[in-house]
Structure formats: structure tokens, C-alpha cells
Amino acid sequence: MSESIIALDIGSKTIGLAYSSGVIASSIDTIRFEEYDFNQGLKQLEPYLKNMIQVLLLLVIQKIWIIQLENVLKW
């Protein structure tokens, strides 16, 4: 199974979001905010994080099922 990577590049006025399947990174979006106003940046980042958390939870649940299935098959 290939793993996907989401990267955050946090600067003083922007947060860059990128996605990679391990070979080439592709830009998702650039969030802009007033210099050092990280609260504003986080508010704009929130929808992305919610989506990422949902995907992460699904992947964790899937991994748990695979481990349980492997344990059952060993038994």
C-alpha cells in the first residue's frame, strides 16, 4: 500500500499545503494571513485539517481491521 503525505510549510505570512504520493509533491493551496497572525492562518487551515483528520481516522480504522484479521488468521 502506498502512503500519501500531506505537508505544511508554515511561514510568517503564509501556510503552504502540499500532497505527495512519495515521488513528486503537488501544491494544494496557499493560505495567506497578516504577518505573524497565526490565529487567522489556523482559522483558514481548519477546513483542510478536518478533512485530513477524517481521512486519517479512516486509514487508522482500516489498519486496525487488517491487524485484527491477521491475528484471527494466525489463530
Automatic annotation (TrEMBL):
Enzyme class: hydrolase
Keyword Hydrolase: yes
InterPro entries documented for this protein: RNaseH-like_sf
Superkingdom in the source lineage: Bacteria
Enzyme Commission number: 3.1.-.-
UniProtKB keywords: Hydrolase
MF GO annotations: hydrolase activity
Protein name: Pre-16S rRNA nuclease
Organism: Mycoplasma feriruminatoris
Originating gene: yqgF
